[in-house]
Amino acid sequence: MASTKSWTHEIESPAAAPRLFRASVMDWHTLAPKLVPQIVASAHAVEGEGGVGSVRQFNFTSAMPFNLMKERLEFLDADKCECKSTLIEGGGISTGIETATSHIKVEWAANGGSVVKVESTYKLLPGVEVQDEITKAKGYVTAIFKAIEAYLIANPDLVV
């Protein structure tokens, strides 16, 4: 029987925590295809208005090992810049992963910027092993947050 495993990752950013959280979580389905078109081909809301229970779908380019991912927002506290979501379709579900959740929290840093804390928890299907996938996942997460950071810095007056 496969056990539940997890990985964590932290990314420092000069962007303010609330702006980074809003762009990376609340508005990500509209920003992703613009900011990382080499990874995300398209994205859209499937159901809901962005609150708890909402489902979003991301369609990926050939840069990713899977073509789509649907996630459901399980917890959201925009004031504390924190959310949790569950992978419900694609992204390796039923081919290698039984379940997967992610927890994102963006905290203020002492220098006025922020620290993004990501925790991914997953349960693999029996017989499935992960090797380089965790390193690759952390690389994708870093690339995504750095793209958002660059966008926010280039557009300081943009309200997100």
Automatic annotation (TrEMBL):
| Keyword line | Pathogenesis-related protein, Plant defense
Q: Which GO terms describe its cellular component?
A: cytoplasm; nucleus
- Superkingdom assignment: Eukaryota
Instruction: Tell me the GO molecular function terms.
Output: abscisic acid binding; protein phosphatase inhibitor activity; signaling receptor activity
Q: Which InterPro entries match?
A: Bet_v_I/MLP, Bet_v_I_allergen, Plant_def-hormone_signal, START-like_dom_sf
GO biological process assignments:
abscisic acid-activated signaling pathway; defense response
Where in the cell is the protein located?
Nucleus
The Bet v I/Major latex protein domain covers 4-154
Q: Keyword Zinc-finger on this protein?
A: no
Matches recorded under PROSITE patterns = PATHOGENESIS_BETVI
Q: Which family does it belong to?
A: Belongs to the BetVI family.
Question: Per its record, how is this protein called by name?
Answer: Bet v I/Major latex protein domain-containing protein
Q: Species name for this entry?
A: Aegilops tauschii subsp. strangulata (Goatgrass)
